[in-house]
Backbone:
């Protein structure tokens, strides 16, 4: 009967661990066969099978074998991750090592309950010797206390494991699903320390002195408190170090977004200064127009007594006047001062950087309406055109003879207003596994690649969204907002 109770408790513990592992792995990676029903449960089932097999294989061996069982189980788990889950190698190392460390530390953190169980058993034995406990009740009482203490220990172990993996999963802010960089080594330092402590305690907990087996817990009872406190401290270190690194990563991303936005504000200020300069030129022409009209009136008066060559003089004067006014033309006419300035500025920059580029904004019309704020419009156009120019420049570096072009257009569909920026590119695009925005091709992903996120945030303010369409070597950014042209 007692053996059956132990087996039931083992099964319950394995089920708890299996649930924790599938929950933990599912937060960081998706199965390669994610369309298969119950595919996410495969990790939990595999862990249960491996744990049961390892217990049977190493049954009856010494305490040091505990770490060997953990090593075998973790290696099988890692191989399973490699075969079953999407993601890079560092992510799978993180999953296997982090879970193994939390599982072992949870075990040692709950081991103090054995001390309470042993204390109660000693008290019961003393009671039987003193006579206040009937001797016939001693064996059932000891068995009950043993089973209850083991059940409590494993319940606390499962609870600690669940809380720790859930906390880590909750604070994970991975920007690219299924991917981890070299920062994973910082995440794993506390976990590695926990595994080393687990190895040390496993090897020393049972020793031999003078040919006799000695359990250190019995020789040094304070270990019942010291070991769990050490394990609990390491669990907190694992969880809070990961949480701290995630918060730092979020701050870094926020700092990068702030730098980009500050840069865009500077660009918009320069563009507005350019627009103001153009308007100053218009006012100057208006000021000089009276003089021009006076000269024109004089020429017309002479027309009444025409002399040879005077008709040609009037024609040339009118031509020069038209040319002077033409020079004030910004060449981009969208119907909106902000979009005129931003598009005109970006198009001039594109011509300077990419000789021969074809630019088209004839189908982009945006009147002076309140459909979208000037600042948000500037963020959308600045980010979208910056990405388009960068893609065309990168294509020209690889293919000097390739045709580079950028076309910007707008259209109305019911209550939705659409902006589209289409450009040529080299045909190479990296999309995160599981979907999402294309990844930046620049090396520093912390400071780049967030332009699309800024555009999406602006579109979301107006009940809209964005979409990226890739067709061979043509990339189209489509921005949708509520409003009318």
Residues:
């Amino acid at each position: 009967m007692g053996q059956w109770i132990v087996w039931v408790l083992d099964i319950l513990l394995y089920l708890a661990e299996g649930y924790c592992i599938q929950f933990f792995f599912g937060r960081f990676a998706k199965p390669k066969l994610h369309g298969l029903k119950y595919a996410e449960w495969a990790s939990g089932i595999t862990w249960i099978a491996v744990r049961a097999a390892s217990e049977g294989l190493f049954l009856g061996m010494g305490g040091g074998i505990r770490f060997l069982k953990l090593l075998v189980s973790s290696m099988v788990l890692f191989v399973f991750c490699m075969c079953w889950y999407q993601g890079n190698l560092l992510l799978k190392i993180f999953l296997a090592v982090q879970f193994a460390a939390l599982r072992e530390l949870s075990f040692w953190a709950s081991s103090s309950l054995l001390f309470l169980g042993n204390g109660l058993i000693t008290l019961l034995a003393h009671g039987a010797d003193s006579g206040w406990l009937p001797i016939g009740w001693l064996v059932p009482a000891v068995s009950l206390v043993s089973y209850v203490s083991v059940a409590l220990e494993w319940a606390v172990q499962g609870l600690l494991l669940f809380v720790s993996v859930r906390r880590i999963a909750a604070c994970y802010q991975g920007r690219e699903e299924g991917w981890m960089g070299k920062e994973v080594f910082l995440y794993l330092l506390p976990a590695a320390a926990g595994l080393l402590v687990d190895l040390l305690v496993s090897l020393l907990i049972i020793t031999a002195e003078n040919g006799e087996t000695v359990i250190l817990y019995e020789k040094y009872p304070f270990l019942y408190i010291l070991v769990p406190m050490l394990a609990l401290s390491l669990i907190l270190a694992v969880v809070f170090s990961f949480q701290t690194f995630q918060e730092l990563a979020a701050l870094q991303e926020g700092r990068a977004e702030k730098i980009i936005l500050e840069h865009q504000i500077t660009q918009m200020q320069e563009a507005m200064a350019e627009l103001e300069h153009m308007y100053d030129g218009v006012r100057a022409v208006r000021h000089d127009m009276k003089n021009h009209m006076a000269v024109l009136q004089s020429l017309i008066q002479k027309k009444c007594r025409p002399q040879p060559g005077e008709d040609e003089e009037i024609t040339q004067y009118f031509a020069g006047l038209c040319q002077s006014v033409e020079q004030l033309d910004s060449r981009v006419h969208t119907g909106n001062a902000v979009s005129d300035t931003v598009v005109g500025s970006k198009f001039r920059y594109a011509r300077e950087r990419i000789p021969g580029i074809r630019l088209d904004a004839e189908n982009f019309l945006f009147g002076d309406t309140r459909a979208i704020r000037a600042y948000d419009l500037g963020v959308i156009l600045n980010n979208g055109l910056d990405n388009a120019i960068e893609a065309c420049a990168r294509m020209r570096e690889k293919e000097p003879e390739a045709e580079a072009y950028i076309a910007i257009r707008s259209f109305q569909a019911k209550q939705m207003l659409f902006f589209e920026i289409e450009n040529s590119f080299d045909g190479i695009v990296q999309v995160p596994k599981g979907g999402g925005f294309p990844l930046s091709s620049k090396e520093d992903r912390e400071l780049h690649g967030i332009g699309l996120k800024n555009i999406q945030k602006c579109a979301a303010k107006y009940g809209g969204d964005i979409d990226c369409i890739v067709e061979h070597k043509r990339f189209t950014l489509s921005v949708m907002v509520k409003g009318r042209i």
Q: What stands out?
A: The two ends are 80 Å apart (CA to CA). The chain has two domains: 2-260, 332-485. Confidence is low (pLDDT under 50) at residues 444-448.
